[in-house]
């Protein structure tokens, strides 16, 4: 039975569409006892708090753990997400680059394996009260404050590497950034935080998009290498060396454009550094070269992993003839994204490829159905049906069959046994116009806890 819809009056009198049939027991319980906050926080809690609850339940988290995660979300993150959209102004105050519509948060669903349940994560860009102003031109204050507060309250959150990258990837004279803005420069997302909701703890990551004074394009690769190498023991890291050699000496290397770096907020001798790139190439030959670093990575199950990746892409894009052949798709999109996981004492990086699903491949319902079938065929379908149901709750459309854009990417990382670590990325589409458009006549003006 498809979810029904109810028109709900929001705190500022505008109308928003929400699904009423969902497994949001944890969210409903909390919403009945948590005191109301300001209108902006209430919007994000009503929208994304409920979406998060649906995903946690669909992924098999215990009710106790769902409540813990939702309290964490409500107390730590919801108040940082900035102004809500209104009928008069659907444009975000600070347009986050995390999502296409500027929503400052995006969830992900790490698919289950034969032995592990799915994991729910999200990344968020805190939006400060003075984001984009002379006081905070790069919108960094809210992120710095949040991470500092987390490090005080949560054991294991280490900000040493965060502080290192903040010091080296940006300049710190705001007046000079203000001068560049006055001269026509446009400041964008520069830092955000990731949260992984594990069964027994919350793990955090920091993400950086470098922006130095006078920078007119993306930061060049040598500057990234210098920043990463400077925190390695003795300045050396075998995985970084192998990756740098590929970038310099393989034909695919110069086509990879670096745009971001990230780290686990853990002690320096334990943390991984993720280095993000985009490439215009989308052919299977290009994917093979990058995932193997041009043959430098010789894992015993590499051929099996590559075949599984081809099968996964074909399944996700079943409706696209070009995708079925894994051809170049540059005329449809800007390319693929990769991150290279550089860890201490590892001989080579682990590499993850991100395949976009938001531009083509059918509706969200079609993509979800195809992914679910692929999982079921490999004995990983235990949560596939719940995932598809969750998509119905996340879409701003009457049903997931009526639109697309909730699922933005599917990523894949090769495991040592030849299986794939697969993650689906899910945008809240907070600034989608249908979030404020009524569907039918309002039944009633609902209070929190009534739906």
Automatic annotation (TrEMBL):
It comes from the Eukaryota. Keywords: Transferase. The keyword Transferase applies. Residues 1-20 are annotated as: Disordered. CDD domains: PT-DMATS_CymD. The keyword Transferase applies. InterPro entries: ABBA, ABBA_DMATS-like, ABBA_NscD-like. Belongs to the tryptophan dimethylallyltransferase family. NCBIfam families: arom_pren_DMATS. This is Uncharacterized protein. It comes from Apiospora phragmitis.
């Amino acid at each position: 039975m498809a979810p029904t819809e109810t028109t709900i009056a929001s705190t500022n009198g505008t109308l928003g569409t929400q699904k009423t049939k969902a497994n949001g027991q944890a969210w409903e319980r909390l919403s009945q006892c948590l005191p109301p906050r300001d209108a902006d926080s209430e919007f994000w809690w009503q929208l994304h708090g409920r979406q998060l609850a649906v995903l946690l339940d669909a992924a098999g988290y215990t009710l106790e753990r769902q409540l813990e995660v939702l309290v964490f979300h409500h107390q730590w993150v919801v108040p940082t997400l900035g102004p809500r959209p209104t009928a008069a102004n659907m444009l975000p105050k600070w347009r986050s680059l995390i999502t296409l519509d500027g929503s400052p948060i995006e969830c992900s669903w790490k698919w289950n394996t034969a032995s592990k349940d799915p994991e729910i994560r999200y990344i968020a860009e805190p939006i400060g009260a003075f984001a984009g102003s002379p006081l905070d031109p790069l919108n960094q204050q809210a992120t710095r404050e949040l991470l500092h507060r987390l490090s005080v309250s949560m054991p294991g959150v280490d900000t040493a590497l965060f502080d290192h990258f903040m010091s080296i990837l940006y300049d710190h004279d705001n007046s000079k950034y203000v001068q560049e803005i006055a001269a026509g420069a446009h400041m964008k997302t520069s830092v955000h935080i990731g949260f992984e909701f594990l069964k027994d703890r919350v793990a955090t990551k920091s993400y950086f998009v470098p922006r130095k004074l006078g920078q007119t394009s993306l930061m060049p690769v040598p500057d990234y290498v210098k920043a990463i190498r400077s925190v390695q023991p003795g300045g050396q890291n075998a995985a970084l060396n192998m990756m740098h050699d590929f970038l310099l000496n393989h034909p695919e290397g110069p086509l990879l454009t670096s745009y971001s770096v990230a780290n686990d907020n853990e002690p320096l001798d334990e943390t991984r550094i993720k280095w993000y790139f985009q490439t215009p190439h989308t052919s299977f030959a290009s994917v093979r070269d990058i995932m193997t670093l041009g043959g430098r990575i010789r894992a015993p199950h590499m051929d099996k992993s590559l075949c599984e990746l081809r099968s996964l892409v074909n399944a996700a894009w079943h409706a696209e003839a070009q995708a079925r052949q894994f051809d170049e798709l540059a005329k449809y999109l800007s390319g693929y994204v990769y991150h290279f996981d550089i860890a201490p004492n590892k001989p080579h990086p682990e590499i993850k490829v991100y395949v976009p699903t938001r531009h083509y491949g059918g509706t969200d319902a079609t993509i979800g159905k195809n992914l679910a079938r692929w999982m079921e065929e490999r004995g990983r379908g235990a949560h596939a049906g719940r995932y598809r149901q969750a998509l119905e709750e996340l879409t701003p459309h009457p049903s997931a069959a009526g639109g697309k854009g909730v699922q933005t990417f599917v990523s894949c990382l090769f495991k040592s046994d030849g299986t794939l670590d697969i993650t689906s990325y899910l945008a809240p589409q907070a600034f989608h116009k249908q979030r404020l458009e009524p569907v039918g006549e309002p039944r009633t003006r609902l209070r929190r806890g009534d739906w």
